[in-house]
Amino acid sequence: MTAVPAFAAPAAGVPLERTTIERRPVGENDVLIEIKYVGICHTDIHHVRDDWGRGGFPLVPGHEIAGVVAEVGPGVTGYQVGDRVGVGCMVDSCRKCENCRNGLEVYCTGGGLVATYADTMRYTDGAPTQGGYSTHIVVDERFVLGIPEGLPLEQAAPLLCAGITTYSPLRHWNAGPGKKVAVIGLGGLGHLGVKFAHALGAEVTVLSQSLRKKDDGLRLGADHYYATSDPKTFEELAGTFDLILNTVSASLDGDAFLSLLRIDGTMVYLGIPEKPVSANVGSLMMGRKSIASSGIGGIPETQEMLDFAAANGIGADVEVISADEIEQAYDRVLRSDVRYRFVIDNSTI
């Protein structure tokens, strides 16, 4: 075991503090990563405050990890010391079920994925997983992603969660030329959804409560920007979209947003509202519309996303902070006061 510096929540609702954690020795197929940057995801805040009742304290959050390979095990073939790499929301899966064999580890049915933090290495030693608010992490090479040259590490880090969360449904529902895509919300997820949908060739519309971020939305690649607080928006855009990505966690009027879909259109929920999603069957029936959801992508698709991002000059819009600013950043995330992702400089841990 190797002790490394980290920031951890000692208990639910308690501010994070500097500590050290143990990382396992580098095994046959392991990669030791020196973490350069880690993004702050809203999920981190939920876990630190134990909003979902999962416990597991002390807890080191962070699943948007970008860094450099510091050491590799003797069986590693895909990476070498000095390579730019990333780790997202999972660090293992059963590897045997149909979904895992097909590169859909996120939907593992053989016991579920092993999350990067707040989980246990159930397929190996049962040790708790601790995330990227630390200086180093050891991960099996199968769950390590290559970050292409030209993609700044601080901009790449949020792609490992927020990026793949929006890229995966865009690819699955065939966003591209001739398709009209709407993105609800222009935040950490939404701003990347706009960038990816635009780069894929779709006509992109942002649907936000107000026009406050309109200039940003158009700069990021949106063709149109509408305020959902204006009832005329729903009249003007009725029957317009092939695909709607809902990136917010607030409860919405499902019927109102379903009215914006054209025939065979789909609204995909990427945030998790506190209350169950509801809609009248008639809103789905009249137009053969669908409500769906989507997790992150599997490892192959996540690598595809990173390669696509590099090829198209896509990175997250970030505000880099020191580790001492984590609590302030959490408060600002809850106030939606960030454009559009906080990233921790891990040299400050």
Characterization of the model:
The chain is α/β, with parallel strands linked by helices and 349 residues long. It folds into two domains: 2-161 and 297-348, Medium-chain alcohol dehydrogenases, catalytic domain (Quinone Oxidoreductase, Chain A, domain 1, Alpha-Beta Complex), CATH 3.90.180.10; 162-293, Rossmann fold (3-Layer(aba) Sandwich). Helices cover 23% and strands 26% of the residues. Strands 3, 4, 5, 8, 9, 16 and 17 form a seven-stranded mixed β-sheet that branches. Strands 12-11-10-13-14-15 form a six-stranded parallel β-sheet, with helices on one face. α4 (162-172) crosses α5. The radius of gyration is 20 Å and the shape is globular. The two termini are 20 Å apart. The model has no long low-confidence stretch (mean pLDDT 96).
